[in-house]
Design brief:
This protein has about 200 residues and is α/β, with parallel strands linked by helices. It has one domain: Rossmann fold. It is built from 6 helices and 7 strands; from the N terminus they run ααββαββαβααββ. The chain is globular, with a radius of gyration of 16 Å. The relative contact order is 0.16.
Length: about 200
Amino acid sequence: MAAMYDRTFVKTEAAGLRDWRAALLGEVGGEVLEIGPGTGLNLEHYPAEVTRLVLAEPDRHMRAKLAPKVEARAARFPIEVTDAGVDPIPFEAESFDVVVSTLVLCSVPDHEAALIEIHRVLRPGGRFVFLEHVAAVENPKRHRWQQRIEPLWKRWAGNCHLTRTTDQAIPAAGFELVEARRESMRQTPPIVRVTTRGYALKPV
């Protein structure tokens, strides 16, 4: 996955995914944790208002691809890379102002447990910024295809699930959902095209 990740997403990024990343991350600041940053496609979009950025990437192959991008941008603000996963997130409660997750919660072992951990490490009033592909429940035919293909897809695509309803799991984990936009991610296979993106707050 690490070897082909950036090449796989070239057309998707150009078709709008890069703009989505920029819009989501352009207003974050303070101490930020990004879970599963992969090869670092979000790095260029973090603004100067970030005072500390922690990148938690458990996959050593992804970290190898991430390293040169971190080095190129580390002068802007402090960046730390850790091999931490989300089960649990190895930081104290209320450690971060923002947690970022883009195209990650589909592949963690338990996305509901991961959201509870994200909630725990955020400070009261903290922001959870997300961009995730989700089950196409509004299109029964496509949803059935997702259900059929998912067992094989998970094996090929690094445990990526096609039928998770992350948009419902976010408020269930205790977040106040402020903005959630459901939209088709262009230049991707139909089974991963439906996405939700936006942000939620941890109540004060």
